[in-house]
Amino acid sequence: xxxxxxxxxxxxxxxxxxxxxxxxxxxxxxxxxxxxxxxxxxxxxxxxxxxxxxxxxxxxxxxxxxxxxxxxxxxxxxxxxxxxxxxxxxxxxxxxxxxxxxxxxxxxxxxxxxxxxxxxxxxxxxxxxxxxxxxxxxxxxxxxxxxxxxxxxxxxxxxxxxxxxxxxxxxxxxxxxxxxxxxxxxxxxxxxxxxxxxxxxxxxxxxxxxxxxxxxxxxxxxxxxxxxxxxxxxxxxxxxxxxxxxxxxxxxxxxxxxxxxxxxxxxxxxxxxxxxxxxxxxxxxxxxxxxxxxxxxxxxxxxxxxxxxxxxxxxxxxxxxxxxxx
Length: 326
Hints:
Blueprint (H helix, E strand, L loop, with lengths): L13 E10 L2 E11 L4 E5 L6 H8 L7 E6 L2 E2 L4 H6 L1 E4 L11 H11 L5 H14 L15 H13 L5 E5 L7 H16 L3 E6 L2 H5 L4 E6 L2 E7 H8 L4 E7 L4 H8 L5 E7 L3 E6 L3 H13 L4 E7 L3 H9 L7
Parallel strand pairs: 3-8, 3-9, 6-7, 7-8
Antiparallel strand pairs: 1-2, 1-4, 4-5, 9-10, 11-13, 11-14, 12-13
Helix pairs in contact: 3-4, 4-5
């Protein structure tokens, strides 16, 4: 029996409700619900085996789920599959690219399949998509001569040919160097600015931190956390914030005396050159109170900054089972 998606006057570009995928007795996706709006770049993150690819295969209409409901642009993915597919662009992990074609020939082949019959219009569309992924200079390059990152961007250009309103990208940053990841980030942000909804997956949290506006973290087939990037970071960190306090040199011991026994300070470390790093359990107003306490003790505070929690450390904890799904 399928779940029900609530009606909404401003329907999300992608709506998933109570999605489940079974392979025999193995549950790959377990009651996943997710909404992605137009112009949003959502990162689907989790260790290998978390259920990301199975979810993507359902979205791409390549796999029928055990149950659940999915809508693409308001169209039921199972009852209105043709209408939903017209709005979809899907880029699988390790998409095959023929080695004996030039970059423009590879895209021209797919452009013709998508219905671009006029040779001039097809050439213009191919050129536009190559520029979109920063491969305009590689138009005449043989596919076999491209690097792994360039190959990934060429597959992304192919996915853009028919102007989809929803992009499903499975591990697109795999094998990319920092420059290629920067180009990918620029491309995704440009698409989002035009109202395209993008769902992009990775098992490496840091790859998506700067690319996405929201994150959905999966583990064991379930959604562990979902929301804006910083909110997810804090949620997975158990509410702990990393704060760095900068004080005048020589006052580190006085700061340690104030922090020792403080109910919201889980731990702290005195570092060189007037820096103290602490794990803080409070919210923004609690940070203000802590600052007031330090100043009240006559300590010369130069700075109080919150440091981002390490995404890779959080993912290791998830994969190791240190943070369990409710």
